[in-house]
Amino acid sequence: MKIHVILLAAGNSRRFGSNKLLSLVEGKPMYSHLTEKIEKIAESLPIGEKVLVTQYEEIFESMKKARWTVVRNDAPEEGVSWSIRLGIQSILGKIRKGDAVSFFVCDQPFLKMETIVSFLSGYVASGKGIGCLTYKEQWGNPVVFSEVYLKELLSLSGDVGGKKVMKQQLQDTFFGEAASRQELEDMDYAPGSKMCEHTDVWKIKQGDPVFFGSLCDAVGILPGRDKIISVVGAGGKTTTCYRLAKELALLGQKVIVTTTTHMWKSTEDFVEWNAESEYGSSTDFFRDFAERLERKRILTVGVSCENGKICGIPSESYETLCSLADVLIVEADGAKGKDIKIPAAHEPVIFPGTDIVIGVLGYPAVGHSIEEAGFRPEMLAAFLRKGTEEKIKWEDLLYIAGSDEGLKKNVKGSYKVLINRVPAGRFPDGGPEEIIFCEQIGTVSEKTIEQIRN
């Protein structure tokens, strides 16, 4: 039996800002960490063909000189399934009965050689047809498949990997364990750059959790494309706004946080929108505003009102406000601190031209009565066709999140659902795969990648 190795190195590195596979990690190109480890484990394991699939000329030429089978992927936009297919097809004639094919990704430079050896050895000893490296509840890479599964792998399409096949064959799957979560992390941000600390943001794909390093990644926000983000619902709207703002600021964006209803007044970096008179002229006000935003990267803008809150700026100033920032994040609903709500007739107040609407609900509402957890409990009870004393179920959150009379009300563009404050290790069943879960949305820190990992 031989274990053939296919390394996938064809991603576009959008979040990294440059070709991350050529960036230096501990003094050498990121991709070479895995290629060197594969070369070394071949001395102790029955490694067969070694294949690397890439779109990058420099990597192509380098690995060709190293006597690897190198396959050029000229269509990375076709998704990971295309790279898988190209890799398998390049060695199809050399795969024998009883062989296996393993798949690695080249942006996991911290995957240890001893972990790879232990995982592949454990796979062989298990007698299973599929293997997957994990850390606790998280499935990761590498994965390995017996040759009997090649037909199914070749039939994959789009941005879907081998775990779709694995999910259908769990009884035939060996799970190896990495020593730390860091080993499974792919590097989506440049070394030394500031980023947001991993705080357990995930989605459920094919019944299993897929973790994200940032809320922006989970939502699918692309700086430069998505200009206006409106946040509605209950159970964490304000913290969601500021979490997104901090992540985007760390990516170099100038962010304004505001509201179309009411929100708590920020204790720092707040700008009173009707303060032009203090400057003598609007020209002075906007010059100072632009300089401050350039320096701070995040400003909260609004008009002060009672009880420590702010309300939105006049609608005639919306266009001006948008012109001042790279991204505008808007709290567009109110719930007075409750975890669950449905909108009244005048709600939500989605900002004109919004690119993405995020509907937020608090998971702690589940198991509590509508009276306890709900905003405007009588209205919520009528919507759910329950009494106010009845307990809220997970299915109720799904219903509210997916209803055009619930959080999807008045939504015209892209819509995402965020369930906040889900207990660690709990993965609710049911609902669309695009639902985003978070253990604690307010957790974020400005650290470099090295500080987080150390």
Structure commentary:
Strands 11, 12, 13, 14, 15, 16, 17, 18, 19, 20, 21 and 22 form a twelve-stranded mixed beta sheet that branches. The protein has a seven-stranded mixed beta sheet with strand order 5-4-1-6-8-7-9, sandwiched between helices. It has two domains: 187 residues, Spore Coat Polysaccharide Biosynthesis Protein SpsA, Chain A (Alpha-Beta Complex), CATH 3.90.550.10; 181 residues, no CATH class. Helix content is 28%, strand content 25%. The chain starts with a strand and ends with a helix. It has 15 helices and 23 strands. It is globular and about 75 Å long. The C terminus is likely disordered. It has 454 residues and is α/β, with parallel strands linked by helices.
Helix content: 25-40%
The biggest beta sheet is recorded as: 12 strands, mixed
| Domain unit count | 2
CA radius of gyration: 25 Å
Organism: Faecalimonas umbilicata
Protein name: Putative selenium-dependent hydroxylase accessory protein YqeC
InterPro entries: MobA-like_NTP_Trfase, Mur-like_cat_sf, Nucleotide-diphossugar_trans, YqeC
GO molecular function, one term: ATP binding
List the helices and strands and how they pair.
Layout: E1 3-9, E2 24-25, E3 28-29, H1 30-41, E4 47-54, H2 57-65, E5 69-72, H3 80-91, E6 100-105, H4 113-126, E7 130-135, E8 138-146, H5 150-154, H6 163-167, E9 173-177, E10 194-196, E11 201-205, E12 208-212, H7 215-219, E13 228-233, H8 237-250, E14 255-259, E15 262-264, E16 270-272, H9 276-279, H10 282-296, E17 298-304, E18 309-311, H11 318-324, E19 327-331, E20 356-362, H12 370-373, H13 377-384, H14 394-402, E21 414-420, E22 436-438, E23 446-448, H15 449-453
Parallel strand pairs: 1-4, 1-6, 4-5, 7-9, 13-19, 13-20, 14-17, 14-19, 16-17, 20-21, 21-22
Antiparallel strand pairs: 2-3, 6-8, 7-8, 10-23, 11-12, 11-22, 15-18, 17-18
